[in-house]
Amino acid sequence: MHKKTTSLALLSLFLLSCGGPDVTYRPAPQILPMHIKKLAVRPFLNKTQQFGLEEKLTLRVTDEFLRDGQFPVVPEGQADGAVVGEITRYILTPVQYDANLVPTVYKLDVIINLQFIDRTRNVILWTEPNLRGIQNYAAPTLPGGMTEEQAREAIWNILARDIVKRTVKGFGEATGISEKKVQ
Fold it and tell me: What is the CATH number of the domain that holds 34?
């Protein structure tokens, strides 16, 4: 009897490993409602002490929506939906030093809070708290190094792609560092 039970267990394991049903969790995408045809990008708020971040990020996000081409970008008064965000953290940290304790590698971390407003129904469709853009870079004096401004531009590109992907493809496509929720 013990031999029969062992054989049955081994056969079950073999069958499960040979093309059993796909059990990967894939939530249904939460895409924009059909009535949203035109989008606006509200100018980002800047809650940091760094001057001028909001303008560059707003322009880069608008450019990325235009490049994507799935939704026309219009002034907010004409839009069915609006992307609204605020830059909450700007953290520049030296992470590597030379023998003289001069920083040679930096980590730039920009964190934003993001939400999408259905202007037709006047409700928040989703929020993405703490969406993060990170860029590690060598000092500009080193080969392949970059300036802080170049690192910021790289982060704007990362965040803009994540924002457009989150808006167009749905929940779960971009990753914030804290709990996401649909309202």
Answer: 3.30.160.150
